[in-house]
Amino acid sequence: MKKHNLAIVGFGGMAGWHYDLIEKLENLSVSGIWDIKEERREYARSRQIPVYESLENLLADETVDLVLVATPNDVHKSIAIAAMAAGKNVVSEKPVTLCSEDLQEMIKASETYGKFLTVHQNRRWDEDFLTVKKLMDEGTLGEIYRLESRVHGSRGIPGDWRQEKEHGGGMVLDWGVHLLDQALMLFPGVALKTVYATLTNVTNQLVDDGFTADLGFANGVHMIVEVGTSNFISLPRWYVLGTNGTAMIQDWGGNLKIVRARGVDKEDVVPVRTAAGLTKTMAPRREDSIFTEERPEEKSDICEFYQNVMAVIEGREESRIKLEEVARVMRVMEAVFASAQNNQVIAFEK
Q1: What's the pLDDT at 265?
Q2: What SS3 class is residue 81?
Q3: What's the Cα-to-Cα distance from 191 to each of 186, 194, 231, 336, rounded to whole Å?
Q4: From CA 45, how far away is CA 171, in angstroms rounded?
Q5: Cα 169 to the center of its chain, rounded Å
Q6: CA–CA gap between residue 124 and residue 298 (Å, rounded)
Q7: I want to staple 147 with a disulfide (CB 3.0 to 4.6 A). Which of 13, 174, 223, 238 is the partner?
Q8: Do β-strands 117-119 and 89-92 pair in parallel, antiparallel, or remain unpaired?
Q9: Regarding beta strands 66-69 and 89-92, do their DSSP bridges make them parallel or antiparallel, or are they unpaired?
Q10: Under a CB-based contact definition with an 8 Å cutoff, are residues 6 and 70 in contact?
Q11: DSSP string of 111-175?
């Protein structure tokens, strides 16, 4: 038996991903799973994964010190609190719950029972995100004044509970929770002053199937965060504008492209000619007046998530995903909904 035993509640696709990851780790093993659907229990058995008789049976297992909650979003809270009351530490899939009030109940339960609660904000380990973060830390582009972060697809929302409002469906809670978390992590210690957002309902009328949010930070930077599920031509994953240049990552796994000016040179500008006239302002720079470079994405190891969880339980490290950060992302998502509903800019932090 390994040092830590984890039990999984809810064995859908994401839980299977967790299981495969945990199999690679030292000192962490999966004791078994529970799912309310018989077909998922049968699938686990087909993989020789033990299946508990019930949730109560899982929580009563004294060999388990960690529970992963990978159910639909609306029952994260009740299962997590029950697990902590049973003496288990908890990893919740994102979003941790559906609203700030529910999250505060979960945090209070963590304090009451003295158990560790964290959230699987796994896209803090995305290599494209880490590449942009390093670029900004280096100052290569000078002072950053605008960023765009987006994910685009063309298949609509998956045909499961993610289409249903009562279960916490919709793209703000599904993908926004990741991109908004990344946005806040790019500006540590900087207040988010304003949120303005719109939602789309192209393929689904019950929940949002996309959104665009303009985040205004206290340092003057505006960041566009966008999710779309009916986009047949995808815009870049990242687009970063600075006073000394521009950078772009087209898609996951792509290189970072950086273009910077060698200097100001207005000579020999060839105007762009259109049917309606010409423009020098929008004329492209000559190749000898710019630097162009490409860099591979930064590398990361998602195993660090569970390694940190175990270290926190053992008292050796602080959590890399802090609950106050999770709570702030929850408030931003609520501001996105409020802005879209009322068609107004939301004043967020002073």
Answers
A1: 62
A2: helix
A3: 12, 9, 32, 16
A4: 32
A5: 15
A6: 12
A7: 223
A8: parallel
A9: parallel
A10: no
A11: HHHT--EEE--GGGG-HHHHHHHHHHHHTTTSSEEEEEEEEE-SS-S-SSGGG-GGGT-SHIIII
Q: What gap in Å lies between CA 70 and CA 209, rounded to an integer?
A: 22
Q: Which two tokens stand for residue 146?
A: 């605008």
List the pLDDT tens digit at each of the 350 positions of the chain: 579 999 999 999 999 999 999 999 999 999 999 999 999 999 999 999 999 999 999 999 999 999 999 999 999 999 999 999 999 999 999 999 999 999 999 999 999 999 999 999 999 999 999 999 999 999 999 999 999 999 999 999 988 899 999 999 999 999 999 999 999 999 999 999 999 999 999 999 999 999 999 999 999 999 999 999 999 999 999 999 999 999 999 999 999 999 998 876 666 678 899 999 999 889 888 888 899 999 999 999 999 999 999 999 999 999 999 999 999 999 999 999 999 999 999 999 99
Distance CA 148, CA 241 (A): 9
Tokens matching residue 78: 């009740």
Query: Does residue 284 have a cis peptide bond before it, meaning omega lies within 30 degrees of 0?
Result: no
From residue 349, alpha-carbon distances to 198, 216, 217 in Å are 20, 10, 9
- Distance from C-alpha of 329 to C-alpha of 324, rounded to nearest angstrom: 9
Cβ-count burial 99-136 (b if 16+ within 10 Å, e if not): eeebbeebbebbeebebbbbbbbbbbebebbbbbbebb
Q: Token digits for 261?
A: 């000016």
User: Residue for token digits 């994401």?
Assistant: 14
